[in-house]
């Protein structure tokens, strides 16, 4: 099916993220928590980039810096070669070229799904109000949410809400979609459906995806690349190229290649998690 | 072909159950009838206790001093046809709503300003916090002196009763809006005005209504007390508080109880009004 709502170039050209030598120290005048330490990453346009690493290592910190939620201490972050933040402007602006889908979901509870999706175009005055709602409805319909468009987020399942949230992000035609453990705490079956829905939307939009997860299978199933991060302070420990053919579906999960990739990622993550645990024990002692 | 269309959301409509009104559901539940039985038993006991003194020469503590419910009902039947009784309602409602509405009009913007502006908060919150613990009734004598008419001082004290509660609720509600909503809105291109009008305001509405409900309760307390204290004087007569007070002065226990029940009903109607209003203004809260 060809989408009328989201159009995608065959070869993505927008949404390259360069993270160069970024350091983030929380509370520099006091406790000095170094969350990210000279971290560098090059994310190609339209790449699905999966970030895994021990809890508390600084993944969200990096995402927040890209999104413009907080400043960085050193280094710079570029989007398509244009600096978002750097030594001169440590805080990136918040703009609709980078949209975040949060861990617990951030659909406005006081708006229906259609109103939620229409929110971005409406505040940006992209189209007249009625048209915004019209297009929001169409986008939801395309994502299989047509019959819950007029429900409030509290009235639909968490899976539907999360899909609607991704629709809400994509209608703004962002260059980058930032997802912070969006499917955490979902059961395996719902997750699988979420993954297929996300991949389908990805195929239509080819938006660059920066996706944080703790679930290695999720990372490998969805990603072009999996970045394994070190324990805090955060750096890239290992990049795993996922050359599984697309489109992927549930049969991918049982393939030998998939299993080997999970094993490789697991070893890298496990090593870091162990370090994090031991560091934690030292701190407690 | 897309993977998404096969989702459960596309399944055929589920079987429709016949919807029953709240009333229908209540009447058909045993809880409802147990409640009715409880009330009837209470009234019967009361009636017996009141009658026992005359009928058996036996004074049951507490109940013995009360007029029988039948006597109260008789007094009520007499009273409700008098326009003066309904004027008491009007007087009290005027004061309650007057103070309450002013408290909302001033309290909501004040609370929001405290929440969104750091400088405003730094300057105005400390004096607010100093005044807040003073019980509204402690203001009665001062406001009687300060305001030219008794009526104004009652409304002022009523206003104070609701104002502090509303402000604290609005401030708390606006300050605890999840930062995710603000960030999401901002990253979709919301301006400061949009953040305020489309995120902070609707996000604070539940707290505004909580504040309003609590404030309304306080308002009735304050109005009744103020009417009892000052209503007996020359200028500001009337009101349900004064109705009770003058019944007490006149030694009519039946009328005191009629007044008490009237106030119960009046207070209930006020909270019901706020609840209905809240459901209309916040349709998303109705669902669960
Ligand atoms: N505002 C803050 N002030 C001080 N320290 C902070 C702050 N936010 C996060 N940290 C610390 O920075 C480190 C990295 O946090 P971050 O949230 O980025 O980790 P994470 O990798 O996203 O973890 P998780 O996988 O648990 O979500 C943590 O040790 C955390 O305690
Ligand atoms: Mg995190």
From TrEMBL, chain A:
CDD domains: ABC_NrtD_SsuB_transporters
Domain of life: Bacteria
SMART domains according to UniProt: AAA
UniProt entry keywords in alphabetical sequence: ATP-binding, Nucleotide-binding, Transport
A Pfam family this chain is assigned to: ABC_tran
Domain ABC transporter as annotated: residue spans: 17-256
GO molecular function: ATP binding; ATP hydrolysis activity
InterPro entries, per the entry: AAA+_ATPase, ABC_transporter-like_ATP-bd, ABC_transporter-like_CS, ABC_transporter_ATP-bind, P-loop_NTPase
Record-stated family: Belongs to the ABC transporter superfamily.
Protein name per its UniProtKB record: ABC transporter ATP-binding protein
Automatic annotation (TrEMBL), chain B:
GO biological process per UniProt: transmembrane transport
Presence of keyword Hydrolase: no
First-listed, main subcellular location of the protein, grouped into a coarse class: membrane
Membrane topology, from the record: Multi-pass membrane protein
Keyword field contains Transmembrane helix: yes
Transmembrane segments: 32-52, 96-116, 153-174, 195-220, 256-278
Keywords assigned: Cell membrane, Membrane, Transmembrane, Transmembrane helix, Transport
Cellular localisation: Cell membrane
Domain ABC transmembrane type-1: 89-278
One GO term describing the cellular component: plasma membrane
InterPro entries (UniProt xref): MetI-like (IPR000515), MetI-like_sf (IPR035906)
Annotated family: Belongs to the binding-protein-dependent transport system permease family.
Name of the protein this chain belongs to: ABC transporter permease
